[in-house]
């Protein structure tokens, strides 16, 4: 068997690994539908099962045979392509209109829901640094760990709100706005973390931050107006009206949609390339590209862009879960790690809950809705996994803390549905895989548009 694996061409192994990742994730999601949990839970679990934590327990090192070490750079590159498209769509999904109503409530609650868990996480980081800091400075570790504790996954939150019917309620709009603001702050903090962790001095940090500021200014000051002019013409762009009695031709729709898809996809990739060039992770460039995309694009053209990008993300993101799962080894956690896991989950949940509930109550929101807000702000999902992957790749955290934090992301995301039902808010189900989101109609009004996220 081992000889047969070695004799396979590398391209064959890589393609087979992608197929295994997609099929295994889909099968587990299908088998666990009755648990009414987000698809991301089972996709992360699939990666852990196929990694050293479960498959690696069997004789013969099945995890390394199925996913050879030599093929992992290829799998990582493919998974990052899916992440770039995912982050681009997540940025495009954010609706600025969420921030226009109740600005004071949004500002206070968003900052509080971000600051409280960040500060609590930073305090805990000082206690964990001696055992879990990688080869970076303590300041980078503390800043990074605080950021991971403050994450809220905006796209999966949008799906939960729609499935629970909260998307048009005041608490739903408030939670979406707070998550949008919080995500923006979190990605800015991550830029600082990446700059600090990857630098060899204060001068290089400031150089990276300056380049990031210049890139952001170009995107929002120059590229965004050009994209807005393009979007203004997309409402009428498409196939001509058919003559009476004739079938409407689809050629013009295909041409305009394909052109928009190719240009938009290339724009996301180039922005990711730009941030990678200046020393920041490519996903941050893709997210910024999504933020500057106009929301006034015609529905026909927007669908032509979003659907294929979401499909590509659907195909490639399971590979990311496998790559992540191969880095998670629960055997290294041990009893000491179990205690740390409980403490980290407690701090993460309490920080978000207190940070969201207290300001919500001060603005007159009921206890039930304030509690729902605190629960919703604790959803972390794929967004947390992406941030953890960046920190792990940079060597900010060690392997054991990475495994613990992945479990924390699973627990805090999985608890949303049951806790909402516990306080009397029924959730019919939270399927939220990118394929299902691509098939679903766009979220209307305050909730934004349907995106790719499991996040």
TrEMBL record:
A GO MF label: antiporter activity
State which residue ranges cross the membrane. 12-29, 41-62, 74-92, 104-129, 141-161, 173-198, 204-223, 267-289, 309-328, 335-358, 401-420
Query: Topology versus the membrane, per the UniProt entry?
Result: Multi-pass membrane protein
Q: Which UniProt keywords apply?
A: Ion transport, Membrane, Transmembrane, Transmembrane helix, Transport
Tell me the segments the record calls region Disordered.
Answer: 435-455
Kindly report the protein's main subcellular placement as a broad class. Answer: membrane
- Mind listing the GO biological process terms from this record? proton transmembrane transport
Where in or outside the cell it occurs: the entry states: Membrane
InterPro entries noted in UniProt = Cation/H_exchanger_TM, CPA2_transporter, Na+/solute_symporter_sf
Q: Would you name any one GO CC term?
A: membrane
What are the residue boundaries of the Cation/H+ exchanger transmembrane domain, all occurrences included?
A: 23-421
Its recorded name reads Transporter, CPA2 family
Q: What is the lineage of its organism?
A: Bacteria, Bacillati, Actinomycetota, Actinomycetes, Kitasatosporales
